[in-house]
Amino acid sequence: MSIDRLAPPGRWLCALGVYVLLAASANAERRWPELALPAAVSRSPITDGLELNGVPLRVQSLRSALSAPALAAALRASLGGAVVESRLGRQRVLGHAHGGFYTTVQIDEGEAASGGSRALLVTADLARAAGQREHQQALVRRWLQRLPAGSQLLSHTRARDGDRWSNQLVYRNGLSQALNARALGTAMKDLGMALRHTAETGRVLLFEGPGREALAVIGRLPDGRASVVLTTVTPREPLP
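The chain above was modelled as a monomer; its predicted structure follows.
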C-alpha cells in the first residue's frame, strides 16, 4: 500500500475552516462557478470530489509570471464584489461569497525569490452542504459509534477515489495508546479489515481487507490526551 495515497491533506485544509461559512439554501446538480482569470494566470485542477466536514470543495492550483502583489490585485478584480482579505503566515488570503458558494484564494508570498507566484483556489459549495446536512450528521454519528466513548471528532474529510471513498478523521480522547489501538482494531474489523502491520512504537497501525485499507497514527497532545489521525479507503457506499 502506498503511504502517500493515505497522506493527510495539507495544512491549507485547516486554514480553510476559518473561511468556510454556513449557507442558507440547497440546490441540486449545481455547477461549480468558473472564475475568470487574467491571461497571465494558468490553472490546474487538483480535485472536485473533496468534502471537509460535509462541505463539498473544488481545489485548483494557480501559477503566474506575475509577482504575488500583482497576482493578488488581478484576482481581487476577478472576484469582484466584496472581497475579504487577511493574512495567514506568508499567505495572503482573499475570500468572496457568491450564489451559495464561497471562494478562497491563498497566494504564497514566499515565492518572490524564485520569480512568479502561485496560489491555491478553493471553492466551497455552501448551499449543497446545507442541503446534505442531515446526511453528514448521520455519517458523523456512524463514525462516532465506532470510536471509543468520550472521543471528540475534530475534523472529517472525505474524497472520491474512483469507485472508493477516502475518509480521514482527526479525533482526540483521554485513553492510552494501547486502548486506542485496541479500539481501532475492533472498529476496523467491523469495516472488514485486519491489522497487517504496526510500527515498533505502536503509534502507526496499518489495516487491510478486500478492496479496503486504513492507516492510523496515534499521538499525544501536550495536555496528555491522545490524538488520532485515521485514514480509510473503502468502496463507495451510502455511509462508508
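Confidence is low (pLDDT under 50) at residues 1-29.
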